[in-house]
């Protein structure tokens, strides 16, 4: 394997960030999480809405629920997937780039709103 450029490394980091967020938090992928976790939103005493994650079932189903509700865990697997894709299918780089641009814009937007 040849050395990876800094540009490609940063693209992979941002792509992994975005894919992880897509899997763990985004509404569009809730259909993947629904068999394993129940997400509710409840206000706390100050009125701030808190995301509550309740893991459903036992055994393999519970394990999947724990995995899909953990951004650290999904981050490892999404990074592994994207790096393997990058190495074995170089033509997949446009997908990495799209996820990276979306990840960078999400990061910037979150900093603007939540400082």
From TrEMBL:
Keywords: Membrane, Transmembrane, Transmembrane helix. The keyword Transmembrane helix applies. The chain crosses the membrane at residues 6-25, 66-89. This is DUF1360 domain-containing protein. The lineage of its organism: Bacteria, Bacillati, Bacillota, Bacilli, Bacillales.
């Amino acid at each position: 394997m040849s050395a990876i450029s800094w540009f490609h490394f940063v693209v992979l980091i941002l792509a992994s960030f975005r894919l992880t967020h897509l899997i763990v938090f985004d509404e569009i992928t809730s259909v993947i999480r629904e068999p394993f976790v129940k997400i509710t939103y409840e206000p706390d005493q100050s009125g701030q809405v808190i995301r509550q994650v309740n893991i459903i079932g036992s055994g393999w189903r519970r394990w999947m629920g724990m995995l899909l509700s953990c951004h650290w865990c999904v981050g490892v697997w999404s990074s592994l997937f994207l790096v393997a894709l990058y190495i074995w299918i170089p033509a997949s780089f446009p997908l990495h780039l799209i996820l990276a641009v979306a990840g960078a814009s999400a990061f910037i937007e979150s900093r603007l709103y939540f400082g």
